[in-house]
Amino acid sequence: MSDSLLAAAGLLSPSVAGTALALDYMEEEQKRQMTIKAANVSLLHEREGKPFVINLIDTPGHVDFSGRVTRSIRAIDGAVVVVDSVEEIMVQTETVTRQALEDRVRPVLYINKIDRLIKELRLSPEQVQERISRIIAEFNRLVNLYAEPEYRERWSVSFAGNTVAMGSAKDRWGFTAEVAKTKGIKFSDVVDAYLNEKVDELREKAPLHEAILNMAVEAMPPPHVAQKYRIPKIWKGDLNSEIGQGMISCDDNGPAVMAVTNIVVDPQAGVVASGRLFSGTLKEGSMIHLFGARVDQRIQQVCIFMGPYREIVGTLTAGNIPALLGLDAARAGETLSQSKDVVPFEAVKYVTEPVVTMAVEPKFSRDLPRLVDTLRRLSIEDPNLVTTINEETGEYLISGMGTLHLEIANTLITKTGLEIITSTPIVIYRESVRGSAGPFEGRSPNKHNRIFIQIEPLGEETIAMIKKGEIGEYMDKHAMAKVLRDKGWPPEEARGVWAVEDSGNMLIEVTKGAQFLQEVKDMILAGYRWGLKEGPIAYETIRGTKLKVTDVSLHEDPVHRGPAQIMPMTRRAMFAAFMSANPTLLEPVQKITVKAPPDLLGAATSVISQKRGKVVSVDQKGHLVYVTGELPTSETFDLSEVMRSATAGRAFWGLEFSHWAPVPGSMINQVIADVRKRKGLPPEPQKAEDFLEA
Fold it and tell me: For burial by CB atoms within 10 Å, which of 79, 320, 366, 391 has the most?
């Protein structure tokens, strides 16, 4: 589809549009015929004699790269959701639609590959229309399910309302109801075009770009309209402030405020930060503050992306998507502003998490510095690709959303000329507690300081609030306390929040009159986050805990209460409480959706059951049955082969991260032993009392 839009704008030869995949410009994208990264381009479109600039971001469809979709949604006001007419609404369709609606991004629908319904499935015009009606109804079910009440009816899509288009991106034709009426196109004309080799005539009569761009102009709001309702959703600062009003009105003359959504590391230019400019004007040479990095840097160039290329523009105003050079400290999710009084944007909330990891090392030890540099660059460009080092084994670990994500990362590493050795993919686990314990005392190595920590499960409701951004690190403390009190939290805990972690943990201070506590607060937080990163069971990340500092006893001399004293004592008390609170290991669970002919229902459900999964629902939609279930991620590595064999290749399926669940009791000891062995740790975790020994 993007090829057609580029060709219409004069950026691509019409003769290669549809096959060039111009925005899939990476070699690996061309080879695999799939989108891996997000690509920006600005298009000029004329509608009824009036020019419009449309900033387009082409995003991936595969669930392993959904993080790029999530970040892109922050920068846009409308989304063209593409649905395959053969496969219909897939798991990822629901994910993308949910993400868009939760960020108040208006969706429209493009039903693609109509040609396959005619040429391959040989459906009659009536059957095609029945399928299209079913897709529209299912999409509107998603809108009704995930949109806020005031947007459900307004943002429902329909062919009659010109918010649905259909066509073939490959053959570069498409139409909305308006185009069909204006051009006198009936669906029988589409059938005739394919049966009698008149596709070129259909393309000329109903070019795809016209349908998509007209739909975008008519249905999607301009920035100055969209920001009125989007800013209150995605920004938690004072809406009545100068900054708040500047963003709400998309004011070119207001304070410059930008949300960085994408980072590209150019071999020559260095870091290129792009994202949405919500207010103000950016110019070359001006200074800008990076809130995440806490530094001021000078903008060297202001550009716009045109696919793989950058065009220098010098100045850009609010509502656009700048690409900035010179901000080496910028990362995806960063907030930029010329004012230091800005409340940063809420952190991007990903629908999935890295759940698979593998070890990588250079074939030749001399290449280690190059490998480290390559991994650093990859993790900057893709924040969902997490790189760490196993200090026990010296291995570098790459964690991603799925096996394809890791496979692409490996390919990108080898493209640099590095020869590497990799392990097989390994599931990532989380550590948590099922009970309460404490307070437990932690002593500093010098014996001069003590801290008392209590632990309990945080609860899935509170974790969901963190994920949705209803509570967070940068939220006004009084407002957060009210939210928590309304959820039944004790007042002293609600007002004592010190830290809210995206990993689903909170640190609460409930001491009474403790001396010097504020002086060591940052050190306690550092020790706490150290402990969260590598839990006591198997050095996996801790999830779902509420830790409370109930008391401290601190030496009056600051020399005796430095980081080397406070951080380890915090971690010890934290781990002693953790290991006394019925600790457990959590494994990632995937949601699976299988579409198959009715005669293969038994085969599909059998595969799910055999892989420690469970069937959640079975629905009949048209000529197919839809099976929804849950599978542990560890059971999905050979799913393609097993499902294909069981269904003779006649089933479609999709996977999406669902939730974390305790490892079954019959397996947990072996899983813990395997993880610890892999990490070079002793077979048995330490007991609570081991952490009480200073």
Answer: 79
